[in-house]
Amino acid sequence: MATINVALIGQGFMGRSHSNAWGQVAKFFHPPLTPIMHTVFGQAEENPQSFAANWGWKYASTNWEQLVKSPEIGLVDIVTPNYMHAPIAKAAIAAGKPVCCEKPIAGTLDDARDMVQAAKAAKVKTFVWFNYRRCPAVALAHQLVKQGKLGEIRHVRAVYLQDWASEAVPLLWRFDKNLAGSGAHGDLNAHIVDMTRFVTGQEITEVAGAIVETFIKERTLPAGIATGGIAQGRSGAEGKGRVTVDDAVLFLARFSGGAVASFEAARQATGNQNRNAFELNGTKGALRFDFERMNELQFYDATLPRAVQGWSTIMCTHGGDHPYVANWWPDAHIIGYEHGFTNQAYDILKSLAGEAPTVPLPDFEDAYQTQRVLEAALKSACEHRPVKIEEVK
Ligand SMILES: NC(=O)c1ccc[n+]([C@@H]2O[C@H](COP(=O)([O-])OP(=O)(O)OC[C@H]3O[C@@H](n4cnc5c(N)ncnc54)[C@H](O)[C@@H]3O)[C@@H](O)[C@H]2O)c1
């Protein structure tokens, strides 16, 4: 049985979801390479030994520089704040290791470009955790578009709305430009830009009309350490600090196939807890997805006689018909958030073994294209003009 030793760098929210994925994947999928949960890195105050024992990592480390170079390690998985993605990825690549990295690929376009160049020069495989591609409903949407069920796509409408960032939430790394790069934009627009590129199979060519807003300009300094949730375990300490990222970013865009698009990311959209959603309208049909009902895909078939046209709700839980689900539970037994990560771990292992993933898997180059779109939106907001993606390199 071929195996690969994994090092996980970080042990917060994504540290938990990736640990779960690496622990589950071989049990449910029988991948061509079996991951061994070798070592997890965490900061000393996070008690990496206890995290390792709880999640099934053999060893714990507080030194990522040493860990990524270790000859024991075959794959490095990065789940730290965005500003650390580039230094960790470049160190791992320099040591010849394939790397999986959380999204956004980096806090800045310069870092993202460096990462792409380093990976290309070293010829190592890279992967970015745009996990929503691996919800069966989203993967099915990708397949339906590819089969031509929508005809020519005219409209793309995407939102990623959350409401956790009230005044009560302290100044986490997510509110610090030096650590995060941007706020809702890199965190949430990155997902919907990637997801719509994936589902349509097209590139965004131009961005216009971007608006950037920060509603809460100061927050209390945080006390305590991350405990696995976005804001969990972090209470405010004495004193306040300045928020240096956006709370919301909206923009318009054009796709290479001629569709016009709108994107909106927000962290204070009260009533929307994790509404990661898109609607595509084509000449032959339309699709709708909303992560708050992640097992469902809505399809409108405009080729049917007008008398019977209407939205149908497809429950994407049929093994054999819907991507990934045959490896989980019997038909119609729904899956959840964590399954997307396990599905991606499976495709990463297939790709490392030279097999094709179930649906296309984003690498650093692919995530860099998404980062260019994000950068173009910021440029559009700053310069009050449409920005062609080819201007942003
Ligand atoms: N794919 C998704 O849906 C998704 C969801 C949430 C977060 N993310 C991404 O995952 C990454 C991590 O986010 P998270 O929510 O897990 O964050 P988190 O705050 O929960 O955890 C971050 C981890 O990195 C470590 N870390 C932080 N600063 C460090 C430093 N200066 N030196 C060493 N270690 C440090 C922390 O100790 C912790 O273990 C980010 O890139 C984020 O954008 C992706």
> How do the strands line up in the largest sheet?
16-15-14-13-7-12-11-8-17
Major sheet attributes? 9 strands, mixed
Gyration radius over CA: 21 Å
What proportion of the residues form beta strands (DSSP E)?
25-35%
What is the chain-wise order of helices and strands? Answer: EHEHEHEHEHEHEHHEEEEEEEEEHHE
Number of helices: 10
Identify low-pLDDT runs: none
Beta strand count? 17
Sheet/helix structural class: alpha/beta
Shape: globular
Can you give the mean pLDDT?
A: 96
**Bound ligands:** nicotinamide-adenine-dinucleotide
The helicity comes to 25-40%
Compute the separation of the termini in Å. Answer: 43 Å
SSE diagram, text form:
Layout: E1 3-9, H1 13-29, E2 34-41, H2 48-55, E3 59-61, H3 64-69, E4 75-78, H4 85-94, E5 99-101, H5 109-122, E6 126-128, H6 136-146, E7 153-161, H7 177-180, H8 184-200, E8 204-213, E9 218-223, E10 235-242, E11 248-255, E12 260-266, E13 275-282, E14 285-290, E15 296-301, E16 311-315, H9 337-352, H10 364-383, E17 387-388
Parallel strand pairs: 1-2, 1-4, 2-3, 4-5, 5-6, 7-12
Antiparallel strand pairs: 7-13, 8-11, 8-17, 9-10, 11-12, 13-14, 14-15, 15-16
Helix pairs in contact: 1-9, 4-5, 5-10, 6-8, 8-10
This protein binds nicotinamide-adenine-dinucleotide (NAD).
Residues 10-15, 42-43, 46, 79-82, 102-103, 129, 131, 187, 226 line the site of nicotinamide-adenine-dinucleotide.
